[in-house]
Amino acid sequence: MGKGENSIFSIQQELARRVEPVEVVPVIADIRDRSRMEQVFKVHKPHLVFHAAAHKHVPLMEANVYEAVNNNVFGTRVTAELSDQYGAEKFVLVSSDKAVNPTSVMGATKRMAELVIQDLALRSKTKYVAVRFGNVLASRGSVIPLWKQQIAAGGPLTVTDPEVTRYFMLIPEAVQLILQAGAFGSGGEIFVLDMGKPVKILDLANDLIKFSGLRPGQDIKIEFTGLRPGEKLYEELLTKDEGLSRTVNEKIFVGRPKPLAPEELIAALRRFQTFVEALDEEAIREELDRLAAGSLRSGLKDIESGKTADHDIR
Questions:
Q1: Are 69 and 6 members of one domain?
Q2: Total of domains in the chain
Q3: The one catalytic residue among 98, 110, 127, 232
Q4: 175-214 confidence digits (pLDDT tens)
Q5: Active site includes 307?
Q6: Which domain holds residue 7?
Q7: 122, 157, 204, 282: most buried by Cβ count inside 10 Å?
Q8: pLDDT in tens, 4-36
Q9: Cβ-count burial of 177 within 10 angstroms (0-12 exposed, 13-18 middle, 19+ buried)?
Q10: DSSP 236-280
Q11: Within-domain flag for 127
């Protein structure tokens, strides 16, 4: 199920080519449309819900705050509440490492989505869990396809900052993380993959140029464009107070962050609704910053000062 008909069509065609036939029911729907979503849940009554629908591009969401909140927060709320209403066994939210101490609108809305399902986990028979992704190599919208296009065009290859680091995971690892979180989760947890040490983006760019049979700085120039609003020099996977323990899979860790008090969450969602309806962008940003304990603004100061760190969850 998804809003983008081209994506749904591509998935349908890919599954149709499998050796073993798979029954697929393609559904076009917007997660923000409660009436349409309720119709889908009423007809199909899913046992497992994997919620990956979200706006994910950091710079775009800085310029489209209303859409970020509507889709990432209220869309998640609709889908999660209907999962409870129609008796889904488990609900797995695909979140992001950008939800940790968020400095971006996108990251803050993903953290808010986590808070929504944590609240439901306290009072529902449905087991709600989240998985935090790093960057998925070669996925749609990731940096590798863009760089390949830039190399094919003769360069330059664009990098935001020479000191930027990111966690990376492969597509099969991302799939396994989602599936195993669904298997392990008892409700309220956040699962993260041990992705080792973060990778310096500049090193990755140089390696890709070399793998293309070219010389960095000679055949293909690298151009530094500067961090964009909301972007960090480095990402984190869990905050210190979320705790960390291993699962039976040594590559997957689990944290149990403290949820918001139910009345505080309800009040915050009401404020967001009011601000979105009034198109009050500044009020939305202030509310996101308040819920993120000031990290939206303090993170911007870190970017300006060049603060960085080397994080390893092991």
A1: no
A2: 2
A3: 98
A4: 888 888 888 888 999 988 877 788 899 999 999 999 999 9
A5: no
A6: 1-30
A7: 157
A8: 999 999 989 988 888 787 888 999 999 999 999
A9: buried
A10: -SS-GGG--EE-SSTTEEEE-PPPPPHHHHHHHHHHHHHHHHTT-
A11: yes
